[in-house]
Amino acid sequence: MRWFEAGDKGMQMDIKEWNEALKDVEDLDRMIALGKKVYANCMRAAGTKADDRFDRTIMAFAHILHHMLEEMDPELWADLRWNLEEQWRFTEPALWECPDPLLKAHSTLDKVEGTSLLELQQIGHDLIQVVRPNLMRLVWAMTVSSGRRVEMHGLEGADPNGVSLLVPLALLDRLMASGTPDFLDEEEAAGLWQITMALEVASTDGITLDELSRCINERQYRFEGNKVRMELYMHSSGGVVVTPKQLGRWRSSMVPVLSVLIAFKVMFLASATGENGPLMVGPIG
């Protein structure tokens, strides 16, 4: 997958849709085309056929970013540039990282059995490195687009340790339930709700996303034969026994939502680049 490369003109992506979007980042059609292209590329890298299930979501992303740009002021731009050019090294090391390795890992896991430990590690990685930061980014964009002035680092203060899925999901649910931002039409609003529904990967088994993330990333599980006993904070002591089939289902069902959140990140970075100038990032390696 073609990804960002650092150069004299800042971080750039050598694909037609990126270059077209930068010509006018407030053009909704160009931004939607970029989002769809990145989504399709991610699905392909994961060995999954792209579909149109998140078309409405990508439309909503473009509309939110359009209004976000209208509400930005010099102080917000300064804070955002610091976040994207420097602070990411300490708070979001995967910001500029090509998603090929994590997506191809899903493709590999789909083809093999007896990989419960790898399934767990993949789920835990994806939740913290992809889902959480991009949900926070989306919440911030929605908040600013609605006319509320909040700096990115201020919003991150709601979860200073950077490990909670509960915080961004609760903030996202609250914004959508209150009709914020109010410029989204019915179809776009439904597209945003689709994200939260797609993230309920273990809800049919009575497990919340935050429980799942904390259990895996804090190593609150143990293997019992080919099954896994997971200690979950919203369940009674003794834990919940999970089969390899369940783990595989949870992990594979995350691929589309991971892809659309990566697409949002690229759309977000394109919006910042096109409106406020190239993002100058030093060596990433």
Explain the overall architecture.
- The protein is mainly alpha-helical.
- It has one domain (4-197, 248-276).
- Helix content is 60%, strand content 5%.
- The chain has helices at residues 16-23, 28-45, 55-71, 74-91, 100-109, 116-145, 152-156, 166-177, 186-198, 209-217, 244-253, 255-276; strands at residues 4-5, 12-13, 221-224, 227-230, 240-242.
- The strands form 2 sheets. A 3-stranded antiparallel beta sheet has the order 3-4-5. A two-stranded antiparallel sheet has the order 1-2.
- The longest helix has 30 residues, at 116-145.
- The chain is globular.
- The model has no long low-confidence stretch (mean pLDDT 91).
Number of helices: 12
Shape: globular
Distance between the termini: 18 Å
Average pLDDT confidence is 91
Helix-strand blueprint:
Layout (H helix, E strand, L loop, with lengths): L3 E2 L6 E2 L2 H8 L4 H18 L9 H17 L2 H18 L8 H10 L6 H30 L6 H5 L9 H12 L8 H13 L10 H9 L3 E4 L2 E4 L9 E3 L1 H10 L1 H22 L9
Antiparallel strand pairs: 1-2, 3-4, 4-5
Helix pairs in contact: 1-2, 1-12, 2-3, 2-12, 3-6, 3-9, 3-12, 5-6, 6-8, 6-10, 6-11, 6-12, 8-9
